[in-house]
Amino acid sequence: MMQVLVIGASRGLGLEFARQFRTAGARVVATARSEAGLSALRALGCEALPLDLLDAASVAGLGWRLDGERFDAVVLNAGVYGPRTQGLESPTQDDFDTVMRTNVLGPMRVLPQIEATLAAGAKLMVLSSMMGSIGQRSSTTGWLYRASKAAVNSVLRDAALTLGPRGITCVAVHPGWVQTDMGGPNASLPPERSVADLRRLLARLTPDDNGHFLNHDGSPIAW
Ligand SMILES: NC(=O)c1ccc[n+]([C@@H]2O[C@H](COP(=O)([O-])OP(=O)(O)OC[C@H]3O[C@@H](n4cnc5c(N)ncnc54)[C@H](OP(=O)(O)O)[C@@H]3O)[C@@H](O)[C@H]2O)c1
User: Is 176 exposed, middle or buried (0-12, 13-18, 19+ CB in 10 A)?
Assistant: First the structure.
């Protein structure tokens, strides 16, 4: 049976990953930071673990809860958007801290905790965003979010350099513009479609893909 870990699965894409992996018969360990999120995951038949990326003790707790686990796939999904700016509007210190601590420090804390749960053949998918691409940038909306996703892409590259030689394939992905709380109702893709694409992509990843930044359809995105 496939063993999967989804980080940040209370709603949106994370919850949809948990749902689709369960439907496909996988054993799913998934995290949420609220009781409502944990209950939603248990209702899907997932093993639900508490995790708040903003809390170092909570991330350390995840490490010991995962002791002895071996996952075929880990999806690092949790993220926040922050202020919906258009141009060069300075973020408040609080907004900067929340977005950077969630989207960058969070993965930098979680990756060392889950490293031992990944063995040769396993896959790590980090939910980045096209908005983090510097090479394909043509808009300035949400520049704090963009900066955070560019930074987590750097984190993913370091994970790929560390884990790739052990046979673990690590990728950053763009899920499309998706109808979630973050993407809003006018987004182009329903979560079911985005996650189906991402699961297909995950299934066909090979070690040659290690360290790549990929769209949900599998096409490469410039860093
Ligand atoms: N939707 C899009 O169009 C789109 C496009 C590109 C990339 N993405 C990326 O895809 C991922 C999922 O996005 P989404 O659209 O599903 O967003 P969403 O609906 O806003 O859900 C975000 C998820 O992240 C969790 N989260 C936020 N802060 C957390 C923290 N401190 N600790 C633990 N979990 C935390 C949330 O948990 P709570 O319920 O507890 O808040 C929720 O489960 C994100 O990384 C996002 O940047 C989304």
Answer: buried
Residues with beta carbon inside 6 Å of ligand 1? 8, 10-14, 33-34, 37, 51-54, 77-80, 102, 127, 129, 174-175, 177-178, 180-183, 187
Domain 3-215 fold is Rossmann fold (3.40.50)
Residue 181 CA, closest ligand 1 atom number? 19
Per-residue pLDDT 10s for the chain (223 aa) are 999 999 999 999 999 999 999 999 999 999 999 999 999 999 999 999 999 999 999 999 999 999 999 999 999 999 999 999 999 999 999 999 999 999 999 999 999 999 999 999 999 999 999 999 999 999 999 999 999 999 999 999 999 999 999 999 999 999 999 999 999 999 999 999 999 999 999 999 999 999 999 999 999 999 9
Residue 53 tokens read as 């990326």
Q: How far is the CA of 10 from the centre of ligand 1 (A)?
A: 9
Which ligand 1 atom lies nearest to the CA of residue 102? Answer: 31
Give the start-to-end residue ranges of the domains of the chain: 3-215
Residue among 44, 98, 127 whose CB has most ligand 1 atoms within 8 A, to mutate: 127
Q: Cα–Cα distance between 62 and 128 in angstroms, integer?
A: 22
For residue 212, the surrounding DSSP H or E stretch is strand 212-215
